[in-house]
Design a protein that fits this description.
alpha+beta; Chitinase A, domain 3; Triger factor/SurA peptide-binding fold; 3 domains; four-stranded antiparallel beta sheet
Length: about 450
């Protein structure tokens, strides 16, 4: 299914570069944030000249799903789909119903088709990725899981996937990125006046609230809206039970932000439809809301973070911490864990500064780990306020779980966040160029789909 822009998607498709940027998305254009999907859809419908009274000849059985495909001669096997699907299921803790697994399988096949088209187009332009580069990236992914490449490969196989599936994805991302740098990026220009206009709007918006929003947009018609709402509620329930919002957004969202896990980046309420702006303003960081009816469909929104434009935030402070942790023996009951946590809390409460933490940890048989340059914003929400209220040398209340043990954090130092300023000229220009490259890239991929010969098996 061709991705469509939801009311949220009007802000623009964020990229990994833009997600780390300051409040730039939506400030690049004054006033309204672009043409709505309703306007664009109306234009496309008129061009098709569809009859007002039409009859459907034949039936399309929605229960028949094609598992494999041949894309311009390249075979996507059922094993390819199964292994990529296993990665998504693993990311959601394995909690995926059979019905949902069927829907995911269809979306995975679509993603693999796009990936294949990207690799083929890069090869047609004499761009090939060295297997050694792919292996290096795979090793970095394994290192993020604190495993060697062989250990990570075994782990993937135990989950029903394989290293080859991740390596194929890495190859596709590298090939497509290099193709865009050669065929699109050199022809994208941003003027000085455009950059200056962005800086002016950033400064004018200083101090106003902005939110980092995640979205899952599901298109709906009056006829199928009840079913779409039910699907949305099912997705929300899965996420509340521990599922990954980003994973569900990538597979189910029909907005252009699906490719980046539904992450819109930083937006201000004025950039959002009224229904979503009101919901976001009433939510706390980490909360999910929906289904929210919006023009053209249903939205699920997730408040990932909140801040004020160009204003320093205490959560941007960098902390120096010591962590003391004690594991619970296998078979520990909740009552036993609570008792041991209470004893651990009493002992750690007596810590007099970080210089005393190692000695106390040794007496308790606790593991002691130093953590420097930890940004408060990157910590779980329930720890942020707690650590901000601590004085240097104080320890936090104990936290943890039966499976992971109990731990405390000792605050050794804090570097307060400095005053936030507007991004410099070069940063703004790079971000605007990136957005324009991505816009052309979407058109490029759309054309590849149109010209492709795809045989579904």
């Amino acid at each position: 299914m061709k991705p469509v822009l939801s009311p949220l998607g009007r802000v623009g498709r964020s990229t990994r570069v833009l997600l780390a940027a300051t409040a730039l998305i939506g400030l690049m254009a004054p006033g309204a944030t672009g043409q709505t999907v309703e306007d664009d859809g109306a234009v496309q419908t008129q061009q098709l000249a569809l009859p007002k009274d039409l009859t459907i000849f034949g039936k399309n059985d929605p229960n028949v799903r094609k598992a494999t495909a041949i894309v311009n001669g390249h075979i996507i096997t059922g094993t390819d789909v199964d292994q990529r699907l296993a990665l998504i299921i693993t990311a959601n803790g394995g909690k995926v119903s059979p019905e949902e697994k069927d829907r995911l399988r269809v979306q995975v096949l679509r993603n693999l088709i796009d990936e294949t088209l990207q690799i083929q187009e890069a090869a047609a332009n004499d761009i090939r990725v060295d297997p050694a580069e792919v292996q290096q990236s795979f090793e970095r992914v394994a290192a993020n899981f604190k495993q060697s490449p062989d250990q990570f490969d075994k782990y993937l196989r135990s989950q029903g996937s394989a290293a080859a599936s991740i390596k194929r994805q890495i190859e596709g991302e590298m090939a497509w990125s290099r193709l865009l740098r050669r065929n699109i990026q050199p022809f994208v220009n941003v003027g000085e006046e455009e950059v200056k206009s962005v800086v002016d709007r950033l400064n004018a918006a200083k101090g106003s609230d902005e939110y980092r929003i995640g979205e899952i947009y599901l298109s709906a018609t009056p006829e199928n809206q009840p079913q779409i709402i039910a699907n949305a509620r099912n997705i929300i329930e899965q996420i509340k039970q521990g599922g990954s919002f980003a994973a569900y957004a990538r597979q189910f969202s029909e907005a252009s932000t699906a490719a980046v896990g539904g992450d819109l980046g930083w937006v201000r309420p004025a950039q959002l439809p009224t229904e979503l702006a009101q919901a976001a303003s009433e939510m706390q960081v980490g909360q999910i809301a929906g289904p929210v009816p919006v023009p053209g469909g249903i939205s699920i929104i997730y408040v990932m973070d909140k801040r004020q434009v160009l204003t320093s935030d205490p959560r941007d402070a960098l902390l120096s911490l010591k962590q003391l942790s004690v594991a619970f023996p296998a078979g520990t009951t909740q009552a036993q864990a609570s008792e041991r946590a209470a004893n651990f809390a009493a002992a750690t409460k007596a810590i007099r500064g970080c210089g005393d933490a190692n000695e106390v940890g040794q007496k308790l048989g606790a593991d002691v780990v130093d953590n420097d340059n930890v940004k408060v914003r990157d910590l779980p929400p329930q720890l942020q306020d707690m650590l901000l209220s601590l004085q240097i040398g104080q320890s936090s209340p104990p936290f943890g779980s039966i499976s992971e043990g109990v731990r405390v954090l000792v605050l050794c130092g804090r570097d307060e966040a400095g005053g936030a300023g507007a991004p410099n000229y070069e940063q703004i220009m790079a971000q605007m160029e990136e957005e324009r490259v991505n816009k052309r890239a979407r058109i490029y991929l759309r054309d590849l789909r149109r010209d492709a010969v795809i045989d579904y098996n």
